[in-house]
Amino acid sequence: MVLNVQLFLDTMAYASVLGLLSMSLTLTYIVSRVPNFAHATFAAIGSYMVLIVVWLLGIYKTGPSWGVYYASLPLSFIVVGAVALLQYLIVLRPLAKKGISIDGLMIATLGIDIILVGLLNISADFLEDIFQQSPDKDLRKLVTYPRSGYLSSYEPTIMGVTASSILGPLLLVVSTVGFYLFLTKTKFGTAMRAAIENPQLAETLGINVNLVYSVSWFIAGGLAGMAGVIMVMTTKLNPTMGWLLIVSVFAGSIVGGLGSLFWGAVGGLLVGFLEQFGVYYTQIILGALTGETVSLGNYRQVFSLGAIVVMLLVAPQGLASLNWGKILSRLGLRR
Amino acid sequence: MAPILEVKGVDAGYGKLQILFNVSMEVESKDIFVIVGPNGSGKSTLLKTIFGLTRIYKGSIRFNGEEITGKPPHDIAKTGIAYLPQTDNVFAQLTVAENLKMAAYTLPSDLAEERISEVLERFPLLKARLKDKAMTLSGGQRQILAMAMSLIRKPKLMLFDEPTAALAPKLAAEILDEIIKLRDELGITIILVEQNAKKALQMGDKALLLVGGRVMYRGGAKELLEHPELGALYLGLKK
Amino acid sequence: MPIELDIGTLAQSLAYFIAAYTIVTLSLNLEAGFTGIPNFGKHLFVAAGAFVVASLGNRLSAYIVSVLYKDEILKLIQEDPLLSKRITEADIGSLWSMYADPLGNRDLDRIMDKFFAQHPELGILLFILILILAVAIGGLLGLLISYPALRLRGEYLAILLLAAAEMVVMAIGYYWKPLVGGTTGLFLPRYLAVFGQKVILGVTVLLILAAVAMYLYAQRIANSPAGRMMRAVRDDELAAASLGKDIAKVRRDVIIISSAMAALAGALIAVHTGSVVSTHYQRFSWTFIPWAMMIVGGVANNSGVVVGVAIIMVLQKFVDIVKPMLAPVVPFDPVWLYQIGLGLVIILMLYMRPQGIIPEKPSRTVNFEEIFEDVLEDKVEDEQAKKMIREGRATP
């Protein structure tokens, strides 16, 4: 089989999650010039918001419901946005002001990741306790969820298609277009581009550079949180779910060149497709060669790592730096 | 008449490194005040010190009778001083229109539009390039854009840091003409740091010669130009 | 609530952890502290040593023993009622392949344990062989990593190393069972039967000796011309290159040596524990904690590293001791508080004392950066031009 519809739908959800995460990671990198190693754990916090919504809104009783999305998308945007804002205001900005080297800033983000995962673990312990001791037997069934829950059983379907396969791409398109309009059509968005390009000049013109950077971090965190809501529909809930995912997120950002939001989104999407279809076709080929069923889903990050290595060694500035006009005309796609 | 800007016995520099030593100067309103001196004598540092971009160890700076010593740059900008750095004085990734909009960032929107159309009248070449990114402008056009951006806030005093560096002679002359017009037509006081000492001294009213961070000469610009020794010694001027 | 403390066990376990972390953190310090190579994938190299011991070492020793001592092994199997049912004479040649599954792993360990009990000298020989193998493969891995490492800037290299480490440990290590048995792990035979019942103490002593040796080695490197060259490369690559230093070679050598050191630690940890489980080689334990130790103790200072290791390990032991007291009071596992606390410590340390408790000694080499800055301030007046020169976009 050359194309598999279900695989394509699953990939749409997963790849748009990576698109959102790579785009928002790129935003924090443009602003603060430090790769945020806690970024995928931002998404994990968003994922936990879904479990909390499933519990508090009683969705565990009623079954699949749109409430999962209505409630957890805004909730995760605000909560994770606030986490990202605090990371910038309390940790990264003071350290950068003190002139700490980039190595120091990176290890600080690794420290934040450890703290966030610790907090998620504490929350997971709390939730397990609450679920276990509940008189409600439906709720007691959720006891394994905080550390290994498949929340996709609570998401609705649209004509047989899981909502995440449609909402994911929709969210990515809306936020990319929204970002574009915000940055080019609004005064504050223009000020954001100005402050990122030349903070000194922006400061002398009376632009509040610190406010601009704070807003950027909040939005980046919020987008990562919403990506986490979609992400948890494609995988298992766990406090350390971000640790392997960060490989794919960095791959997407590096493919995009870590310099442009649009290309960050494209990079994330491409890496998502590369991983999913790479695994799928490798399985088919290895299966045909060995005559056995081969399952490689757990090794999808191999393709991301490959993308990072190839990109850094071949085109370190990412896809954004390539001369697309020339490439298209070479390929005969444009005259 | 009291001077618009008064610098008194200023020692200043970066961190522990002192560059300026006991520098004093007085700038009269609506004058073109020229600062000249050999390379590395502290000319740019003096401009930055006025605009609050260096550390001042000693001395005081007063603008319009108001103490501005040690104030941060954005506060100094509010008092009516504009500073045009030599490079990076426009947002290269933004269009010309966006650059002007950013220059009017703190103004209410109707006033901002009014001021922007005013400066576009003054510099028609920008009008034709409104939708182009600033990075596509030539060096001279960029200086004009930077000038336009400062004018939006109607400054009383403008500090120019080598506005003609890296420009072809003809373009350089045009920029200097624009600066003279700013004074003649808008009554803006100008402090100019210039590599081309001869040109600058010809257009200037008063001048200051800085050597090694110390004041060597203070007085009329023409007099410095005609000084028997100083010009030849420090400015490469032929007698 | 009274707590019972077995001081002997506590001291021994503390000594083991301090020794193991000293080796790993010294190797990190050679890379990150002295040479400016931000290795954010240190756990990959520690895991490499352990994985080599568990996968290659296990198989190799089983193969060598079953070929050289076929009859004795056969006798051992036939004497054991359980094993004789599962393993026949025909399997002897392929005994090594039994490591692929957990049951075979346990069977094989029983045979090997008995064999080494009878031939302790052979156990020692194989132990040494496997250790050399682990160190060599660690060095090779370093060589492999040095290719991208020579071409990439700081943050990109950090991303690449972290990504590679997570991929190998969390994907392949967790799920590819033939390597080290996935998340259930693999047991190792008791190579060091020579220590009898005191095998853990014996390996701890070996680890301490290795840590002392590595400390002396790291000190020698730091005080040698090579050490000064490393710092020159870290402080100003351009200036170092202009003085005719072969930067690529310095960086490559440092990465190879550090990787081999980390692999040595990983191998000894595996032998100490008697098993290898991929989940024990995570980012937190073997990348984050060594970084924390280096930053707390002192960057680019070997004595500082030892101090940092000691402080954090004593802290961890303290948490281990108070944990049972805290457990009934707080409604979650107190170990998370330790993780959060460590995260906070590193951030506070960066904020208040980024040079660490024992700062780097002023080096006896030329400080390029200072000279560069002095000259720059002297000769170039314009800030913008200075910025451009510093960033290498213009020449003075």
Structure in words:
- The complex is a heterotrimer of chains A (335), B (239) and C (396).
- Chain A has 335 residues and is mostly helical.
- Chain A has helices spanning 5-32, 39-56, 59-62, 67-97, 102-132, 137-140, 145-148, 163-185, 187-197, 199-204, 209-231, 242-256, 261-290, 301-314, 324-330, and strands at residues 157-158, 161-162.
- A two-stranded antiparallel ribbon of chain A has the order 1-2.
- In chain A, a hairpin with a 2-residue loop joins β1 and β2 (161-162).
- In chain A, α2 (39-56) runs antiparallel to α4 (67-97), α8 (163-185) packs antiparallel against α11 and α13 (261-290) packs across α14.
- Chain B has 239 residues and is α/β, with parallel strands linked by helices.
- Chain B has a single domain, classed as P-loop containing nucleotide triphosphate hydrolases (Rossmann fold, 3-Layer(aba) Sandwich), CATH 3.40.50.300.
- Chain B has ten helices and ten strands.
- Chain B has helices at residues 43-50, 73-78, 96-103, 109-122, 124-128, 139-151, 169-186, 197-203, 221-225, 230-234; strands at residues 5-14, 17-27, 32-36, 55-63, 66-67, 81-84, 157-161, 189-193, 206-211, 214-220.
- With 396 residues, chain C is mainly alpha-helical.
- Chain C folds into two domains: 7-352, no CATH class; 366-396.
- Helices cover 74% and strands 1% of the residues of chain C.
- Chain C contains 17 helices and two strands.
- Chain C has helices at 7-35, 42-68, 70-79, 81-86, 102-118, 120-151, 154-175, 177-180, 199-223, 225-235, 237-242, 247-273, 283-297, 302-326, 335-352, 368-379, 383-390, and strands at residues 186-187, 275-276.
- Chain C has a two-stranded antiparallel sheet with strand order 1-2.
- Chain C is globular and about 70 Å long.
- Chain C starts with 6 loop residues before the first helix and ends in a 6-residue tail after the last helix.
- Classes of the chains: A mainly alpha (335), B alpha/beta (239), C mainly alpha (396).
- Chains in contact: A-B, A-C, B-C.
- Chains A and C meet through α4, α5, α12 and α14 of A and α7, α13 and α15 of C.
